[in-house]
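Lecture notes, part 5. Sequence design as translation. It can be helpful to think of inverse folding as translation between two languages: the language of shapes and the language of residues. The source text, in structure tokens, appears below.
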């Protein structure tokens, strides 16, 4: 036998409103989780760029100091062959360093990309897990309510 409340006009309307509220809550939670994940990815991305930029700037400053030192030494040397040799040694050293730095920067960029991809994957996994759990609990609540009304 159905209870008096389930036969009233308001009962189906309340059930629909509860369902809409639950759906809205799930959508908002999903949105908040995805927004948080995007902001965390951006934070990590900027941290990676900050480290790359700092390393690049330190190396460029070192290059300038090295070049200034070499130019000053060249100014004290009168022999053209010796100056040329000094310049060639400096240039060879810089070329090797720049080559090593390029490889290191590619590796750092790959690490940043890998971190972002891992976070994106974890975010997708996380965003589905809580919603499924909440949806499951909501269904259980509805089942209990319908049992109460039907008894």
């Amino acid at each position: 036998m159905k209870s008096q409340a389930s036969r009233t006009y308001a009962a189906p309307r309340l059930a629909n409103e509860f369902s809409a509220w639950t759906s809205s809550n799930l959508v908002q939670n999903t949105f908040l989780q995805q927004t948080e994940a995007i902001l965390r990815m951006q934070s990590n991305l900027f941290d990676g760029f900050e480290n790359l930029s700092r390393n690049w700037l330190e190396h460029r400053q070192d290059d300038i100091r090295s070049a200034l030192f070499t130019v000053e030494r060249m100014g004290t040397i009168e022999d053209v062959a010796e100056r040329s040799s000094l310049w060639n040694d400096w240039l060879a050293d810089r070329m090797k360093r720049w080559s090593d730095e390029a490889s290191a920067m590619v590796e750092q960029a790959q690490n940043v990309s890998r971190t972002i991809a891992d976070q994106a994957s974890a975010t997708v996994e996380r965003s589905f897990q809580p919603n499924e759990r909440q949806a499951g609990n909501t269904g259980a609540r509805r089942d209990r309510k319908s049992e109460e009304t039907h008894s």
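The translated text above is only one of many valid answers, since several sequences can fold into similar shapes. Confidence is low (pLDDT under 50) at residues 131-146.
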